[in-house]
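Retro notes (design track)

What went well: tokenization of the new backbones is finally stable.
What didn't: we kept losing track of which sequence belonged to which structure.
Fix going forward: every design gets posted as structure first, then sequence, in one message. First example under the new rule, 334 residues:
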């Protein structure tokens, strides 16, 4: 052996035999996302120098301020995915309707949803952000893809993953056969395998939530966090609190160190804040593959039938034991 860890590209090619129906299209889609990840990573590393910080002055479909990097990354991913000819339709956080690629749209067998930059308010302070993607097999037969190709429950996903732009850049994904993580070597421009078949660790007494919203939470969530904060060493309490404010980074920490991330619904955000198709569902697929769970408080995230591209859901994700616990707080209040 040559002694280096396989690259993402080698790893995907080696596994392609698991998907004989894919005839190379799947790896083209993954390569396009990986290339976007490298370019976004470079831009973020240079952010202040290439004027990639700051806001465009516009708001997106959800009424949120659009960062310059949101816009730039959105256009980049649409171009790179469209150019493969393997994608029939796309959904982005930054675009209201379904996006159809300009070239060879009819050939594409995949529908891809993505959050180009997750946690974009972190860019201006050089804190971690990420890109999230979800790949579904199209359900329409041919031609340009439609809404129904995108509006599928998370359990149908062919693949999902994220790129974390942190102290190093990591590409983490699943195709339903374990979760695999790769680190970008910027001198080579290659992602190399770092962890194969990642699982949540046993230890899990960390919670990650914006507790500043607690005054607007419903009772089960308030009681749950109060319980986590009580002093009872035998049950591992009090838990520690960690919150980066970028879902990808908070989830990545939980995947490696254990714990639970929560974004409950509240009296202001009645459906919660996070979006099902390109935030909650892809990470839920990864969590389950890593031995964890994801719920909206009562229901499995992967079983929610989406009705809109930008639909939101309350969200609890992490170690199975922790997600079961919050589910008990919710079901006993019903
Ligand atoms: P985005 O930057 O893609 O709009 O996502 C921001 C999300 C998510 O990354 C994070 O977990 C959450 O917003 C943080 O919300 P609060 O600032 O309300 O805690
Ligand atoms: Mn996001
Ligand atoms: Mn975003």
């Amino acid at each position: 052996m040559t002694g280096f860890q396989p690259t993402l590209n080698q790893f995907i090619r080696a596994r392609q035999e698991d998907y004989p129906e894919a005839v190379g299209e799947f790896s083209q889609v993954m390569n396009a996302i990986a290339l976007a990840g490298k370019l976004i990573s470079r831009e973020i590393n240079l952010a202040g120098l290439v004027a990639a910080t700051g806001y465009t002055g516009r708001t997106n479909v959800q009424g949120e301020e659009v960062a310059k990097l949101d816009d730039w990354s959105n256009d980049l991913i649409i171009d790179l995915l469209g150019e493969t000819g393997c994608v029939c339709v796309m959904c982005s956080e930054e675009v209201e309707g379904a996006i159809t690629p300009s070239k060879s749209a009819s050939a594409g067998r995949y529908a891809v949803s993505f959050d180009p930059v997750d946690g974009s308010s972190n860019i201006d302070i050089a804190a971690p952000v990420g890109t999230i993607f979800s790949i579904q097999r199209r359900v329409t037969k041919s031609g340009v893809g439609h809404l129904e190709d995108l509006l599928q429950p998370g359990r149908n996903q062919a693949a999902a993953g994220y790129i974390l732009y942190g102290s190093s850049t990591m590409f983490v994904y699943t195709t339903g056969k374990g979760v695999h993580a790769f680190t970008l070597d910027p001198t080579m421009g290659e992602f190399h395998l770092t962890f194969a078949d990642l699982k949540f660790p046993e230890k899990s007494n960390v919670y990650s939530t914006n507790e500043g919203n607690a005054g607007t939470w419903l009772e089960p969530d308030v009681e749950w966090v109060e319980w986590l904060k009580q002093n009872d060493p035998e049950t591992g309490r009090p838990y520690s609190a960690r919150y980066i404010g970028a879902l990808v980074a908070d989830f990545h920490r939980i995947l490696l160190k254990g714990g639970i991330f929560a974004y409950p619904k509240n009296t202001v955000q009645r459906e919660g804040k996070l979006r099902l198709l390109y935030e909650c569902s892809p990470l839920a697929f990864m969590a389950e593959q890593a031995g964890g769970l994801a719920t909206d408080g009562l229901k499995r995230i992967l079983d929610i039938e989406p009705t809109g591209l930008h639909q939101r859901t309350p969200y609890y994700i992490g170690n199975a034991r922790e997600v079961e616990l919050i589910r008990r707080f919710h079901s006993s209040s019903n």
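Added context from the reviewer: The first strand starts at residue 55 and ends at 59.
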